[in-house]
Design brief:
Blueprint: E1 6-9, E2 12-13, E3 16-17, H1 19-35, E4 39-45, H2 49-52, E5 60-65, H3 74-88, E6 92-96, H4 99-112, E7 116-126, E8 129-136, E9 141-147, E10 152-156, E11 171-174, E12 205-209, H5 219-229, E13 232-235, H6 237-241, E14 262-266, H7 272-278, E15 283-287, H8 295-298, E16 301-303, H9 307-323
Parallel strand pairs: 1-4, 1-6, 4-5, 5-11, 6-10, 7-10, 12-13, 12-14, 14-15, 15-16
Antiparallel strand pairs: 2-3, 7-8, 8-9
Helix pairs in contact: 3-4, 5-9
Length: 325
């Protein structure tokens, strides 16, 4: 019989804990509180102490350190993860829907012969069974799943859960697992994407534009509004496809996942693919002429108006208030 613990597979990038790891911990905390078990985080890599400092919401942190784990290697990682799962026997395993997660989760599920749910937005326990809401068909459909075999593997969409509040300093357990040299998979080098002019994933205020912008020339007034707010401009895919903004400004399934304090959506219909990249924003304000636009379903506030009738007056009001102190 499996334990009631929930295991999070954390990701460490360049010595720092990836944001998705904290979101997974938030999901694990919710599930563990329902099962009565612990929220446990597994970190694999090299020099992991700094990454541990952000995991105050966990009950335990398991560490597997070795220089050969400094760069992700699917062969080594799945072997070690399989060993940890056999040792810990968790109720569920949470892995992020990231490039690493898409590689690691299916390998683990196939290796252990356990069920796996992808695109998870919600997770809960019902009558002792792990359940999840999965986004499928590009986000056009949501399916509620029951995974009645342990351990269930859940791939969680970024932006679906909030990091938990710290509960103190979790116990750190160093695992003495044998790490051999990889045979089938060799790490060559890490190729980073070209840096954009602005990293929209770090912005606290974002002004998103969609088809409703009409033409590229109208971006100038939106840039002025973003500047007045102290934020940056981002876009849905149609704007980027037109070449009006670079791909680094695209929000959505095929772009960036953002979680600003304010997301002002101007002329964005709110297709599921776009929502997937910004639904985790703290405050969403939507402006669209179509009252049936899907963006209104997730917006906290909305206005049915042409964005071009709003942007310039709003910019003037914000500037005036700032000038008045």
């Amino acid at each position: 019989m499996s334990s009631q613990d929930i295991l999070v597979v954390g990701e460490v990038q360049a010595g720092a804990l990836a944001e998705i790891s904290l979101e997974l911990l938030g999901a694990a905390r919710q599930l563990a509180d329902q099962t009565g078990g612990q929220a446990v985080v597994l970190l694999m890599g090299e020099k992991l102490e700094a990454a541990c400092d952000a995991l105050g919401g966990a009950d335990r942190v398991l560490l597997v350190e070795d220089p050969r784990l400094a760069a992700y290697n699917s062969e080594l990682y799945v072997q070690l993860l399989d060993s940890v799962v056999a040792q810990e026997d968790p109720r569920a395993i949470l892995i992020g829907s990231t490039s690493i997660g898409w590689d690691l989760a299916p390998l683990l599920a196939a290796r252990r012969g356990v069920p796996m749910a992808v695109g998870c937005r919600r997770a809960w326990i019902k009558d002792g069974t792990v359940c999840a809401t999965a986004s499928i068909c590009g986000g056009k459909l949501l399916a509620d799943l029951a995974l009645d075999k342990s351990p269930a593997v859940l791939m969680v969409l970024p932006g679906s859960f909030k990091p938990p509040e710290a509960r103190g300093t979790p116990a750190r357990v160093r695992l003495n697992l044998s790490v051999g040299d990889p045979q089938a998979v060799q790490f060559e080098k890490l190729v980073l994407p070209e840096a954009g002019d602005i990293d929209i994933t770090t912005q606290e205020i974002l002004v998103g534009v969609g088809r409703g912008i009409g033409q590229q020339e109208n971006l100038e007034v939106v840039e002025q509004l973003a500047a007045a707010l102290g934020g940056a401009v981002c876009a849905s895919r149609p704007v980027v496809d037109q070449g009006w903004l670079p791909p680094t400004r695209q929000v959505g399934k095929s772009g960036m996942t953002v979680k600003p304090k304010l997301y002002l959506a101007l002329g964005i219909s709110g297709a599921p693919e776009h929502q997937e990249g910004m639904a985790g924003s703290e405050l969403i304000i939507a402006v669209n002429t179509d009252p049936r636009a899907p963006i209104f379903e997730i917006a906290h506030f909305g206005a049915q108006i042409d964005l071009m009738d709003l942007v310039e007056p709003l910019t003037e009001v914000i500037r005036a208030k700032k000038a008045a102190g």
